[in-house]
Specification:
The chain is mainly alpha-helical. It has two domains: about 90 residues, Alpha-Beta Plaits, CATH 3.30.70.1530; about 220 residues, Rhomboid-like fold (Up-down Bundle), CATH 1.20.1540. It contains twelve helices and four strands. A four-stranded mixed β-sheet has the order 1-3-4-2, covered by helices on one side. Helix 8 crosses helix 9. The radius of gyration is 31 Å and the shape is elongated.
Length: about 325
């Protein structure tokens, strides 16, 4: 945008100011800054934007900043054309950008969510004990609860859940807690603890089941990373639906960001189970889309529903481990 601070050689009768309201009339006195010319006043942003529109349509224009504000001047013989182009532009962009989606207030359950993550870390310590506090029995937790593909396909479905609570070492555990904790805390605050954990366990369970079906029979894995990438998929899906009124580029941003995280964090490392990460993400996205659609239709679950869902998740995980320990010879 050219700023005209001096105007020698520009003949007044050849230039005409675009009215800020696009009403079709404006003073033909190009550089008068009196009150009678107030219809020409624009903000700096609007003047810059209109100048870009006119330049894109090959219509000569000049921007002039007077005492009352900015003004866009065009040649007299191009005035009607310039006015029409600006009207079309303003009509197409009248309600753009759309307002941000309405958001529900976050639930203050950070302490409860962190407590579950601490419990997961405490369970890792239990798996390292030589014997249980109430006896001398040595339990091989990895053998009892890992996601062994052959055994899962043989009917030991609980392994798809128990494997989510097992980790090879503290480095493996702390990586999942540090990276996954951020997503899980936010997801629980957004959806409520019960619904969030139900979706998380669902994505991890289904991801491990599908991975067992796709992998060779001798495939074996442990870790909460399937659930962690399920959280990434859930967040991507619910944000995709919440921004469905945006243009394509902005609507695709949550998914692009999630895929970037998946590529950055989920495909590196010697013992990385890429299949479990991808499937956890995919099932998380599917469950997230379903949950957000139902939330739009029926509203977010209330406190009682979230409590029941949370208790259901706890009972399911305890039952899975109880079955694993009883079944193990």
């Amino acid at each position: 945008m050219d700023e005209v601070t001096d105007y020698p050689g520009i003949r007044r009768e050849k230039w005409r100011g675009i009215p800020s309201g696009l009403a079709g009339q404006a003073s033909s006195s190009a550089f008068t800054d009196g009150e009678e010319d107030g219809g020409l006043r624009l903000s700096a942003h609007q003047a810059d934007l209109w100048a870009l529109v006119l330049e894109a349509r090959d219509i000569p224009c000049r921007a002039w900043r007077g005492m009352a504000g900015w003004r866009i001047m065009v040649p007299e013989d191009r005035f009607d054309e310039a006015l029409e182009e600006l009207r079309l532009f303003e009509n197409e962009n009248r309600d753009w950008p759309p307002p941000p989606p309405a958001t529900s207030p976050l639930v203050e359950n950070t302490l409860a969510t962190l407590s579950v993550l601490v419990l997961l870390a405490a369970f890792h310590n239990i798996t390292l004990l030589e014997g249980l506090p109430f006896g001398n029995t040595r339990i091989d937790w990895l053998s009892a609860g890992s996601a062994d593909s052959a055994k899962i396909l043989d009917g030991q479905w609980w392994r798809a859940l128990t494997a989510l609570t097992l980790h090879a070492d503290w480095l493996h555990l702390s990586g999942n807690l540090a990276i996954g904790g951020m997503f899980i805390v936010f997801l629980c605050r957004d959806l409520g603890s019960g619904l969030a954990w139900a979706l998380l366990l669902g994505s991890g369970f289904l991801g491990n089941l599908a991975n067992a079906w796709l992998q060779p029979f001798d495939h074996n894995s442990i870790g909460a990373s399937t659930l962690v990438f399920g959280a990434v998929g859930i967040l991507a899906a619910i944000n995709l639906l919440r921004h469905r009124g945006d243009n394509r580029r902005r609507r695709a941003m949550p998914v692009a960001a999630a895929l970037g995280l998946l590529a950055l964090l989920g495909t590196e490392g010697k013992n990385t189970d890429i299949g479990a990460h991808l499937l956890g993400f995919a099932f998380g996205a599917a469950l997230g889309l379903t949950a957000e659609h139902l939330s739009d239709k029926y509203g977010r679950p209330g406190r009682k529903t979230n409590v029941l869902l949370a208790l259901g998740c706890a009972v399911l995980m305890v039952s899975a481990w109880w079955t694993a320990l009883v079944y193990t010879p």
